[in-house]
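Task: complex structure prediction.
Instruction: return structure tokens for all chains below.
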Amino acid sequence: MKWHWRQWATDAEQLRRLHLFGNVPLFSGLNRHQLGKLLVKFFEKRYPAGETIFREGDPGKALFVVLEGKVSIVRTADGAEKLLAVLAPGAYFGELALIDDQPRFAGARADEDTVLLILYKSHFDDLIEGQKALAIHVMENLLKTLAGYVRAEQSRGALRAAKTAAVSIAEPGAAAERTRR
Amino acid sequence: MTPEEEESDGGETASRRWFPPPPSIVWALAIAVVILIVYVASDVAVLFIFSATLAYVLNPLVRMAEGFTIRRDLAVTAIYLAIVVVLFAAAFLLLPRLSAEIDNLSSGSFTQQLDQAVDKLHREIIAEYPAAERILGVPEARNERLSALIERQTANLPNLLTHMVSIVVVIVLIPVFSYFLLRDSRKIVRLLLDRLPAVHIETSVAVWCEIDRIIGRYIRGLALDGLAIGTIAATGLWALGVNYPLLLGAFSGMANVVPYLGPFLSGTVVSVIAMIQFQSLAPLAKVLLLYLGIKFCDITMISPITVGGSVHLHPILLVASLLIGGHAFGLIGMIVAVPTVTTLQEVARLLLEHRRGRAGIRLPHHGRALPLQTYVC
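Output:
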């Protein structure tokens, strides 16, 4: 039987995480070597089903990548919980914590037994100091994501404005009343 | 509100404040127990500190290997094997020269040489400045004082030999401890993380990350700083023709680990050696100038690059922590004082920041808020 030294020397768990990172949009464009450098900065933590990962309003300190399981992103409005997204393996959340430590806009909860990879801002700051090319790449992807949010919000705003304009043409009184309110 | 009402209200608030939440009590007790253990079993604590330090210095290499998806245990073993090979090679190349230097230093002629050198310097100073005789006294009286001092010091030698045994045991145990610490650190961290309640994990681990960053940088910086200082000192001493440049360079590099006192100590030792060798003031002045120059380069160029901004301590706090550390735990206390106090300061800052964050108070960045853009396109 032939002995495969490379297979013997490889950390299978680490390799699985590396393949997952290759499919995370935030890390797209990074080569394998850069992904490896980024990967060693992450912590791993298990969350049982139903456990809160962070609450709305908590100071943001870390970016999370889903390795296993499912995570719900929820926001409380008028006392009712609104589901914003359900994230599967390969998805990420809490990315704004890499920029500043402002309070979280929404909360996160593990829907089932979940394993998350966590990158803390201080470790990302280390990357910015030591691995500039890598950090710029991640920041570029982050900016693209943020630009996507802004555009989506702008188009929603434009849609709302168009609807208001349409209503004001059809019922001028009602539109004026709505504007006053 | 009457003063009585104010007092009763104040008293009520104070009584509410006097009951900290149970986790704080548990943490305070845990910290107190750790401090007690460290104080009582300081030998074990020293062993652990040195092992953890070695593990910290080597950790970036292990992480680099992990980045290439190499198994952690394999990477750690390979690094230790490489270190053993390098040490053997260094011993093979440098040991004959080093042992010759040590033999010469520890030979019986050393005290005689020292005596002669001090005597000659004494006479040279008095010949140059006769007024100095009133301060320094006659050479014969000084010789008696010096002999008595040397006799007192050599009387402690048997004690020193018993200490040597424990030093050798520690030197053997440190690599073993650090090997296992380095190999299993990821598992230990994962185990601790899984035990931590999820709600507090972000802040708790952010604090740990900050501590890790400060300590890691400080230790790696100090090691690099020591290496640079040792190399420069050895080269400078060799250029000045001072005996034992390798040994004194290595000593200068290691002594540099203790802030402020280390360079002073190495400078003094080297000056004594130079004094014995040259028995004249001019070469001694050259050696002192070399050490002043090295310290100047260290402060202005080497230390900012190697240790960098990892330590943000006020000079008074730094000196105070050194004194307290030295008083409580001796030399080891002085070495670990600065990173310990820096860590405590950073933890306090992060916890305060977290509390402010939960209370909804946001501090503007660098003293002023960034202006908001009125449009996005």
